[in-house]
Amino acid sequence: GRAAARCGFGAVMGSKNLKAIAVRGDKKPEIHDEENLRENIKKSLPAFIHSKDHMLGKVKYVFTGFVEDGRHGINNWRDGELNGFKENLIEEVENHVRSGKPYLCRHCYTGCVESNIIGEKRSTVWEVLAPLGSQCGVIDMHAINKAYELCNRYGIDCISAGGTISFAMEAFEAGIIAKKDTDGLDLRFGKAESMLELLKKISMKEGIGEVLGNGARSAAEHFGGKSPQFAIHGKGLEVPAHEPRSHNFLALAYATDNRGASHCSASNPRSSEEDFADLMKIRFDAKGTGRMVARRQNYTSMLNSLVMCIFSQAGYAQYYTPGDYQGISANNVVEWFRYVTGRDIDLKSFLLAGERIFNLKHLINLKRGITGKDDTLTERLLKEKRGGTSPAAENLPPLETMIEEYYECRGWDKDGKLTKEKLERLGLI
Ligand code: SF4
């Protein structure tokens, strides 16, 4: 299982002593044209995506690709190489392919790279391998899997936990946090036992865990000095396990998403056939990236509203699929939407509805004082090169240039505010 912890959702529930919300009904929602819906879904999805070989093979392609690409942060995003991490990860992935089995969410047609288990548990999960592995300088896969289990048991998010612990490790190495603050824990990078102990302290709000439990940005405010430059985040949310210096569109998506640095809005900017570009070819582009990211954010807003999993979509579930198949596209989803609701909607109006949702959330942010100046990332990701040998080694994302294009295509002014014309076009005034 996994915890619904990202962005503090679990913390809000925990603070209210709320463990779950159960909903029960005795009527089935009506589907306008179920027969054609099922037929169309079957036709749109090639048979190979259901095979065990494909599902497990994806794990290998994707994770090996990620590590070769330099998507994983190293030592709090400070360094470009971590001896032993890649080798251990590849061995772990091979073990996964040998002994894993597909384990999909109920009714899922596609599966994603992490919809597998070994024995009774999920393991080899990217969003823990990087944040609580390489970001903390830890290469011991057993310790990383243990950290995953602890996060799930305690109901905390692996990404934010990793981002906050790696922040603490760098602050410790810089002498900002001392052993007296950590109850004697040696927090240097690579200390797996300390990482596990700190996870427990965070979960139990014990000692330094109470400060770190509020996240890296808040902890940096607490410790002061140079420490804010070690808190790697966007709008207070710790940066997820995909290096923004390795793909410019990732940097833009993290900087502009309403929730902060999230990998779930436009980390893969492909939505429909018209923007099914090869990510490797566009990764360092600036021009066109603003339009593509905005379009994907609009599309993802619709997927969220329809309670559709983003990982079943093009670029996620089918990352590195063989042949020409690109995965489920926005055109498929619009067609299915029509079969379910009977409403005659086209892709343009579908995306317009998503745009309205995205902008409504943006308006809430503006009202709360989160403005254009917050559409950014910690300076390290924009000004310090990653180094090392991956293709990301020398790239710095040109965020300002991309934001200019992004705001223009969103119809926002230079401060990120919606223009009157935009509000009218979206029917919001
Ligand atoms: S693609 Fe989504 S719905 Fe399917 S198994 Fe993965 S997380 Fe679950």
Automatic annotation (TrEMBL):
Keyword annotations from UniProtKB, A to Z: 4Fe-4S, Iron, Iron-sulfur, Metal-binding, Oxidoreductase
InterPro entries, alphabetized: Ald_Fedxn_OxRdtase_dom2 (IPR013984), Ald_Fedxn_OxRdtase_dom3 (IPR013985), Ald_Fedxn_OxRdtase_N (IPR013983), Ald_Fedxn_OxRdtase_N_sf (IPR036503), OxRdtase_Ald_Fedxn_C (IPR001203), Tungsten_al_ferr_oxy-like_C (IPR036021), W-dependent_AOR (IPR051919)
Domain called Aldehyde ferredoxin oxidoreductase C-terminal: residue spans: 67-428
Keyword Metal-binding in annotation: yes
Gene3D superfamilies: Aldehyde Ferredoxin Oxidoreductase Protein, subunit A, domain 2, Aldehyde Ferredoxin Oxidoreductase Protein, subunit A, domain 3, Aldehyde ferredoxin oxidoreductase, N-terminal domain
Cofactor(s) listed in the protein's UniProt record: tungstopterin; [4Fe-4S] cluster
Pfam families membership: AFOR_C (PF01314), AFOR_N (PF02730)
Record keyword Phosphoprotein present: no
Molecular function, one GO term: oxidoreductase activity, acting on the aldehyde or oxo group of donors, iron-sulfur protein as acceptor
Family: Belongs to the AOR/FOR family.
Protein name as annotated: Aldehyde ferredoxin oxidoreductase
Species: Candidatus Schekmanbacteria bacterium RBG_16_38_10
